[in-house]
Write a structure and sequence with these properties.
Layout (H helix, E strand, L loop, with lengths): L4 H13 L3 E4 H8 L7 E6 L3 H14 L17 E4 L5 E5 L7 H6 L2 E4 L5 E4 L2 H11 L2 H15 L1
Parallel strand pairs: 2-4
Antiparallel strand pairs: 1-2, 3-4, 5-6
Length: about 150
């Protein structure tokens, strides 16, 4: 999978620090269907104190240390921590609609980025459930496109 260099670098630090996360959103759609424009990368993070510390360390390695985030910021369900600006914004999500961490993690797939980083990605069925749960027009269109591709 081809990612912008900044995203590759960040996810390399996530891998080195053993951060538990899943790629969701537009980039996950690109893996399960086809690439489309997106203004960010969405990362669904596991909520545990240990993982929160790993995230902080990886963000510090990447250069986001001055943002003054705390471990507690990654422990509250329903949080969206946005770092950077589009089209290179990183959204860290502590929960997603319609899918628990355990469900998403159990059915994840692994793809390799163009720079050789292994990326855990939400499974297709969980991505569909998530997108249906949001009810947003663009997400419903994504589900329609995935299903059309399955029929071919």
């Amino acid at each position: 999978m081809e990612l912008p260099q900044d995203f590759n670098d960040l996810l390399k630090f996530f891998a080195e620090r053993k951060v538990e996360y899943l790629l969701v959103g537009g980039y996950a759609f690109a893996i399960h269907a086809y690439p489309r424009t997106t203004g960010d990368i969405d990362l669904f993070i596991r909520i545990t104190p240990e993982n929160a510390e790993k995230i902080l360390a990886a963000l510090n390695d990447f250069g986001f240390g001055a943002v003054n985030l705390k471990a507690q910021d990654f422990l509250t369900p329903g949080m969206v921590i946005q770092l950077g600006v589009e089209p290179f914004r990183v959204d860290l999500l502590t929960s997603i609609e319609g899918v628990t961490w355990e469900e998403a993690d159990q059915n994840k797939i692994i793809v390799v980025s163009d720079s050789g980083v292994s990326l855990p990605v939400i499974g297709k069925n969980e991505l569909i459930r998530n997108k249906l749960s949001t009810g947003r027009e663009k997400d419903l269109l994504d589900v329609k496109k995935i299903r059309e591709l399955e029929e071919k």
